[in-house]
Design a protein that fits this description.
This protein is α/β, with parallel strands linked by helices. The protein folds into 2 domains: 156 residues, Spo0b-associated Gtp-binding Protein, Chain: A; 186 residues, 3-Layer(aba) Sandwich (Rossmann fold), CATH 3.40.50.300. It contains 7 helices and 14 strands. About 8% of the residues have low confidence.
């Protein structure tokens, strides 16, 4: 599934250092002549594409990027040091636009693609360059060239790293609103989410990953029921699946009554897995975690029993969370991050 993630930045490369107008002054060498060194070149602003970034969220906290200016030239023909370039790491697939004209300037499509967004100014010339047979003591120098300044708009077509599966009202929208800055529509009736929405989960200095709240699935979707293929096409573009299954009064009554029938939560899980397998076996084979939601609405022994049933039947990791109280959210997001990183490396 693809979404547009964008941000705007201002970049300014470093100006070049000025040339030096120095003269050699040594004992016993009264006419040493000009020896002014050149100024150093200004630093570039360079955009570098990397698979270690999956969103542009890291750039939103810093809108202005500057590179170092070059040092001025010095006497004894010493050239000033070049300014240090500033590298801006962006996700692979980032397109760069001139924000003032709308022109596409670059499209970084491969890991370690590099593009100079703003070239550093050239260094100025020292007076040594202007010595001639008729002008043995020139005082002329040139200043360093100015750096470039640009207003850029970065645009990334995001593929959601994690897709949230689940029946309507499984708690997907509430979950994504708790772990990201996304604000999907939330209510206590089915099909609250009619169109996919995206949130970016910030993992600090490690990076971030995109998580999609996708419209709820119903039985028969592989045959076009409900949102049908519209939903399943979105799932096909995700790397990792998080299958949210809500716990409720039906499961609580069943467990406490000692019935041997399958809990309602497990039935709903099986139904969606059936639809995925019927649609595409490759999608059904994607890495998946099972998330039992709304643990705050059931007794602890009920949650423990359901978790054990899911683990025994699926052999997959099962997390128990409550988006309302925040219980279990940190462990789940850490697990999703690890799975996303592993999927990218493959």
């Amino acid at each position: 599934m693809r979404f547009i993630d964008e941000t705007k930045i201002f970049v300014a490369s470093g100006a070049g250092g000025n040339g030096c107008g120095g003269f050699l002054r040594e004992k016993f060498n009264a006419f040493g002549g000009p020896n002014g060194g050149d100024g150093g070149r200004g630093g570039d602003i360079v955009l570098v594409a990397t698979h270690r970034r999956t969103t542009l969220i890291e750039l939103r906290g810093k809108a202005i990027w500057r590179a170092e200016r070059g040092e001025h030239g010095r006497g004894k023909q010493q050239t000033g040091a070049a300014g240090k370039a500033t590298e801006i790491h962006v996700p692979v697939g980032t397109r760069v636009f001139d924000n003032d004209t709308g022109e596409i300037l670059a499209d970084l499509t491969a890991d370690q693609d590099r593009w100079i967004a703003a070239k550093g100014g050239r260094g100025g010339l020292g007076n040594l360059h202007f010595k001639t047979s008729t002008n043995r003591a020139p005082k002329k120098t040139t200043p360093g060239g100015p750096g470039e300044e640009k207003n850029l708009r970065l645009e990334l077509m995001l593929m959601a790293d994690v897709g949230l599966l689940g029946f309507p009202n499984a708690g997907k929208s509430t979950f994504i609103s708790r772990v990201s800055a996304a604000k999907p529509k939330i209510a206590d009736y089915p099909f609250t989410t009619l169109t996919p929405s995206l949130g970016v989960v910030d993992m600090g200095t490690d990076g971030s990953f995109a998580i999609a709240d996708i419209p709820g699935l119903v039985e028969g979707a592989s045959d076009g029921a409900g949102l049908g293929y519209q939903f399943l096409r979105h799932v096909g573009r995700t790397r990792v699946l998080a299958h949210l299954v809500s716990m409720g009064e039906h499961d609580e009554g069943m467990v406490h009554s000692g019935e041997q029938d399958t809990p309602d939560a497990l039935r709903r899980y099986r139904a969606i897995r059936h639809e995925l397998a019927a649609y595409d076996s490759v999608i059904a084979g994607r890495p998946e975690v099972i998330v039992l939601t709304k643990v705050d609405l059931v007794e602890p022994d009920v949650a423990a029993t359901l978790r054990q049933r899911f683990e025994n039947e699926t052999g997959k990791k099962v997390f128990v969370i409550s988006s309302a109280t925040g219980a279990g959210l940190t462990a789940l997001t850490n697990a999703l991050w690890d799975m996303t990183c592993a999927a990218v490396e493959e």
